[in-house]
Structure prediction request, 82 residues.
Amino acid sequence: MKCSNSTISRLLLQIVEAINSSSLTQLHWALPTPAKVLFVDETFIKTDKSKYWLIVVVNEEKRVLAWDIAKNRDSKTIPWVL
Prediction:
């Protein structure tokens, strides 16, 4: 994209804020979704000198039920997403 690391970080923050504030996201968080199986996966995103963890929970139909971008990968993070 030929942008500085700080520009990319600002764009990522704007995207996350837009998703979190959307009415569709709020609806998904408010309504429970039944699932027989939950799959949890994580990967890291590195920007400049910062490292973030993307944690995603999907059901057996590959529907995303929850996700979070966390600064720390500790024992409290995954249970919070679940």
